[in-house]
Amino acid sequence: MLYPIVVKRTLAPGVRLYEIRAPLVARKAQPGQFVIIRVNETGERIPLTIADFDREFGMITMVVQEIGFTTKTLAKMEVGDDLLDFIGPLGNPSKLPDSGTVVCIGGGVGCAPLYPQVRALGEKGVNVITIVGARSAENLILTRELGRYSKELHITTDDGSEGRKGFVSDVLKELIEKGTPIDEVIAIGPMIMMKVVSGVTKQYAIPTVISLNSLMVDGTGMCGSCRVTVGGVTKFACVDGPEFDAHQIDFDEQMKRSAVYRDQEAKALERLNCGCRNGH
Fold this sequence. Notes:
The chain is α/β, with parallel strands linked by helices. It has nine helices and 17 strands.
């Protein structure tokens, strides 16, 4: 079975949205879960978080940042082209509260996997405060969609080109300091952003959940490449996560692990840019 690209559009420089026809995956998909794709027979397997799903039409939406060999290869594919493998849904669905106030924080492309959670919370009637951040206005994605299900939407950019100049953690601190009752924080984005957010909420004992898009190979807990230290215990992001208690994560270890294959990836990109088949 092949998985055709039905929709492809650009959201920001180097960031594209894809809608893939995968009815069996769409039938079971839940907020917080992910898929593992392979573009062709010689391609690597990479995890991508589900950004949206449509059970009626059998569609899965993914938002992909073009940073590595496989994501750049995917960027060269067009509507009508087929992905060879599309495995999922994998991982545990988000455990979302039914009431209270939840602050949802998205950084960069982290706004994509955050969206189905914001939507689910909003549809439950939960008071959702969403904070999104990006380097600049052109890098912001899905703000309209997130705002539709949020009671408040705060936008930050590093350069101040849209919203307020600063970081998502600045807005979070202000909300806490002015006495906003917050029952939970959900943060998805760059590792350093999630680390800073976790540091803020830990001071106030606010439960905080993050989603890890770790290095993965099989997605079933067999290879061990996605291991993460949680409260001093080794867990696997693919089967125990991808969401974890932020206050229990060893962020420094995770940031080191995310750079393990940086040299190999750089060599693969060089070959791709030279036109070598499949980066070899």
